[in-house]
Structures are given as structure tokens and as C-alpha cells.
Amino acid sequence: MWLEDYSPAEDASGPKSREVSEKFKEAAKKARAGIKRVQKDEQKAKKFDLILVEFLVIFIRDKKYDEILESLFKVLDSGISSRFIVAILSLVYLPISDKIREITGKENLKFFYHSNENKDFDDADIDPILRDRINHWIEDIVSIMSFDPSGIVDKRTLELIQNTDVLKFTSKVFSFFFKEINMNISTSKSSSYADFILWEVHKVLSKIEMEEI
User: Fold this and answer.
1) CA-CA distance, 60 to 75, in Å (whole number)?
2) Contact at 8 Å (CB) between 72 and 165?
């Protein structure tokens, strides 16, 4: 029996009792909706928690990812959503992108690029293959953050997404991506791109109509 199913006898105090009863039932209805919303959010969060854990094992075991682990753990501690962390990591591990695209109903990507000589990243002359990969990364972030949004978890992410630790994490992942293809990118330029990407994601999340609790 839920609280809104309870109705005091109307003849106990006359009209006043009926007014109190209606207000009580309305408050109980909202409380019940809130409980259901939290339970649904928890199920969504668990799904992406499991996906993140699956890929975290791979990142922790492979020493080449050590340089991004510290910033990754800080972001984990901040309480930002697992789906956001998964989306950021998808740039440097294609199977994560495959998982995101499976969930959101998109075709998997094919990407292979490696510079024969070590060179500096030039944003005025980006190879179309790299430009497409970065654009697909942004698309993956936006699509998974927009997919079946979770009121509680995603509102929390919206509050944290421009946090300094989140910016550093995103920038580290961006830099790591270029290091893997034998290219150098300055910290300031990587941070600038990360800031732009996070702002775009922030705008998308801001437009999503979250269910009220």
C-alpha cells in the first residue's frame, strides 16, 4: 500500500479534512514518482558502471595508459557519470566507441592512422582522417549522453562537466590520442580543444528535458 492510497474519513473534520487529504495525496504521489525515478536512474547508472569497469581493467593492465590513470581516478572520485567517462575514453580505445555505437544504433568506425615521422599537431592543416575521427568522437560523446538520459545522474554530470579535473582528464586523453599516432600537441592546445568539446557537451545536456523528480 502506498501513501496516496490512504484517504482519511471525510466526516472526521468536514471540508478541511478533505483539503488536507488532497494535499497529502498529492505530496505522496510526488514522493512515489521520485522513488521510481531514483530506482530507474540507479539501473541506468549500474549499466554504464559495468561497462566502465569492463574497460577499466584493460586500461589498468596496459602500462601505456598509465599517464591518464591519475586524472581518470580523480574524475571517478568527483562523482561524474560513468557514461561520460566511457565516452571520453572512446577516443583512445576503439572497442569503447564500438560499444557506444552499438547502444545508440550507429555503424562501427574503422580508423587506422600513424605518422611515419614524429611531427607537431597543426590545427590549420589537420589530415581529413584525423578530423573525421575527432568529429566521430564528439558525436559518440553527444549521442551517448543524449541516449536515455537519467535525471539524477546527468544533472550531476551537468554540474561537474566544467570542473577542472574533468577538463584535465579530457585534455590528457586528447593528448594521449596524438601521442599514439606519433604526433605532438601542446598542453595549452589540448586543453583548449578539451574545453571546447566539454562546452559543446554541456550545451547538449542543458537542452535535454530531464524528468522532474
Assistant:
1) 15
2) no
Collapsed DSSP state (helix, strand, coil) of residue 210:
coil
Query: Residue 176: which region, alpha, beta or left (left: phi > 0; alpha: psi -120 to 50)?
Result: alpha
Distance set, CA 143 to CA 95, 101, 102, 136 (Å): 16, 9, 11, 10
Of 41, 107, 80, 56, nearest in space to 162 by CA? 80
Higher-confidence residue: 149 or 170?
170
Burial of 69 (0-12, 13-18, 19+ CB in 10 A): middle
All cell numbers assigned to 10: 471525510
b/e map 163-191, b = 16+ CB within 10 Å: bebbbbbbbbbbbbbbeebebebeeebbb
β-sheet bridge partners, residue 120: 184
Report pLDDT digits (tens) over 38-72: 445 555 556 777 888 888 888 988 999 999 988 98
Does an H or E element contain 119, and which?
Answer: strand 119-120
